[in-house]
Amino acid sequence: MPETDPDRPARVAVLDIGKTNVKLNVVATDGTLIETASCPNPVLPGPPYRHHDVATLEAWIFEHLAGYARSHPLAGLVTTGHGAGGVLVGERTLAAPMMDYEQPCPEAVTALYRTLAGTYAERGSAILHGATHIARQGLWLETEYPDLFAEGRAFLAMPQYWAWRFSGVAASEYTSIAAQSHLWDVANRRPTPIVAARGWQRLLPPFVPAFAPVGLIRPDLAARLGLPETFEIFCGVHDSSVNFYRYQAAGLKDFTLVSTGTWIVGLSDACPVSALREDLGMTMNADVHGRPVAGALTMGGREFALIAGPAREGEAAASDPAILARLVADGILALPSFGDEDGLVPGSARRGRIVGADGTEPTLSAAERRALAVLYTALLTDLMLDALEATGLIVLDGSFVRDPAFAGLIAAFRPDADVRFNLDTYGVASGAGLLAGHRSRTAPAALALEAAVPLALPGLAAYRAAWRAAAADARTPSIPSPPETAR
User: Fold this and answer.
1) How far is residue 177's CA from residue 285's CA, in Å, rounded to a whole number?
2) How far is CA 444 from CA 12, 229, 272, 393, 436, in A?
3) 33-40 and 264-268 beta bridge pairing
4) How much is the pTM?
5) Helix (H) or strand (E) holding 17
6) Which of 119, 328, 341, 397 would you label with 12, given CA atoms 20 to 30 Å apart?
7) Which has the minimum average pLDDT: 30-39, 127-136, 165-174, 475-484?
8) Check: CATH 3.20.20.140 for 250-487?
């Protein structure tokens, strides 16, 4: 076992489970990333339905965790993941395979679910596509696979499944169950109506804070993996919420965080619950203490790719200000939405198009399309910030801030706000490491934020107004489907 240096922060393993990829990291409790490994998140076609290959993933996790144990003095494990993974467990094993939430749900199940799911205020989000929502997955299991469902002893969000697998202790956790599971009424701190209607109370174990251990590692796993018997298994946490926690740990409050990547995700502890709108896809999340956090999200990364086209080798990471200025001066607009979701513009799905000042689609170079994608995603983010009533401190992070123009555009759109950005690219892992140090932290965590300098583009305010007016028109059926070149 590697020796522990008392002058250095403790180290923990952070298991970060995404829909497509999984990472296993070594992170210090001051948030420093030390080592990382990744693999695809395997999915099997069935039977009984499309599901995650948990056994294969477990073998990979065990192999790499054992390797880390030989190289690092690990003190514990924190698991984080997306909010659409529910796991029904029995006494010692899975009672049913973990569903892939992107598969279609039987129409009869969804129809029944809509009658049971409660109001938007109770659920905390709209009813989304496929098999999204742990509550809907539970209803699918209960109605279509009653024998499997009867074997269930606890219905866990994905981070808590891995805590259970390593410790044998079943627990619920605020951020995970609040992440559009439809099992928890965040504002009132109680289960949603479907839980009582279906008698699922027995499947929801007691709550444990994300920053607290549910227990120690099982002795057999400690011996198998070469970990100390004092190795702590933390309850685990929702991925976007632990990135938000990273800033809370640094002492930030009354702020709005926008994390960018495949999804643009906004979270705010300053936005009132009354501002949430179902038609804009807004969500009610929770922080690690169970307090309400307003959310909004849109698939900005996918929209970016559909406008910009595939990345090219050697392509500049930063937009050319001259190209941005020319697009603005010429009034060339990318209008929502290019993907299958409405996002922040209701009724706009698959209506995305690129238009010039004369109403026709201009011919654009690859660099121009990429710059237009930056303008478009900044304008989407600006809409999101309006929805979240963000007027004070705004923090931007994720892949989009690698292009200085993105933060500069947000600062230009919102001159009265304090817009800052963080260039770190491992926010979830860093937040999870800080979470493990929550109980012993005596001062705010270190955080390096840079002030965004407003991008000075002549005519930008008029361009923003024109885009907003045209985007609103995208809600009407008169807007034609986008040409193939714009998809």
Assistant:
1) 9
2) 19, 30, 25, 17, 14
3) unpaired
4) 0.93
5) strand 11-17
6) 397
7) 475-484
8) no
- C-alpha 203, offset from chain centre: 25
Query: Which of 400, 370, 401, 381 lies closest to 464 in space, CA to CA?
Result: 381
Structure tokens at 99: 């569903």
| 70-87 pLDDT tens trace | 999 999 999 999 999 999
CATH topology match: 11-235 vs 250-487: yes
Residues 195-238 have pLDDT tens digits of 999 999 999 999 999 999 999 999 999 999 999 999 999 999 99
CA 39-58-51 angle, 5° bins:
80
Tokens 């180290």 sit on residue: 11
**Domain spans, the chain:** 11-235, 250-487
pLDDT computed for residue 308 by the predictor: 94
Contact between 96 and 148 (Cβ < 8 Å)? yes
Residue range 11-235, CATH number? 3.30.420.40
Q: Please report, for residues 29, 422, 440, the alpha-carbon distance to residue 443 in angstroms, rounded to integers and kept in the order given.
A: 13, 20, 9
Measure the CA–CA gap between 382 and 272, rounded to whole angstroms: 18
C-alpha to C-alpha distance for 474 and 351, rounded to whole angstroms: 7
